[in-house]
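Continuing from the previous page...

OK, I double-checked the sequence for HNH nuclease domain-containing protein against my notes and this is the correct one:
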Amino acid sequence: MPPKSQDLTSGSFASPPANAKHLLIARDGLAAPWGSCTICKDEGVAYDIAHVLPQHDREKFASYKNAGLLPPEVISLGHLDVVIYICSNCHRLWDMNDPRLTIIPNDIEFFIQWEEADYRRREAEVAAGNFPPQRTVPNGDDYKGGYSWYYLADRQVPGTLRLAMQTYGRSVTTKAAPTALILKSWKSMGTPVQYPENVLPRNTRAQTSLLLNLWERPPPIPRPPPATSTETLPDPPCLKKGRSPPDDDEPGWGQSSPKYRKENRSEAKRQRTGQQTTTQQTKVVDDNQEVEEPWDAEEDFMFGPLMTSAKLMERLR
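Thanks. Re-ran it with the corrected sequence; updated structure tokens here:
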């Protein structure tokens, strides 16, 4: 009995386990005992175990893992969740440098909604102080929808695939990691090609592109606390001068501004003019009757010629 720490679903980092064939036949419900091609359903031919992700690109695999785009149980390129069981003819088309044979989930909207909900969860965790939160993605058991295969090329579909399409349609049954299949499919859809419009549903490419944009968003990060300062600011010049602060919307205010200096000079001039006018004029009431005010010696001295006769007679007594 192998130790508990051994992963029975993968061999070396890039190679599947020795019993992968039987495990894949059982996992995807392929025809027993020898199985059939997951894509074209062909039986009685040579079969291969094909990698969903590039077999020797460890750097790309690491970037997918770091971004949380693969289920946590997928720890290597040889894991059962990132391999499929197909015939040698389909395998050749599957592994081309410019691949045109791909498998795409029928319900991309499911993955879009999952990512949106998961992003909100990660934002809430960051706000609660749990950082960094890990992304979650659906695995083969979470996704209950079906798959379809597509041959995205501007040339004739190979005979085996053409026959399979006429006999079985495009339906595919697999429990492979759906996000890995989506990542591979974008490598095919990302290259412009003049294939017939009826090959790929009109909104499949647009939805897949939207999903990839959501996956590429920066992860939520903690927001810094608002800046606070305990430093006491000096009183503004207006308070030192005894002048009330202006309205917030008053433009050009300030001790050094021309408007401030002009207002100060005007106010001082009005005060001086008002004092002179008050001392030079005699206050009267209706019918020009003079009002007797308290005697002010200084006023009499300065403005004696303007003194009323009543005050003059009073002073001469």
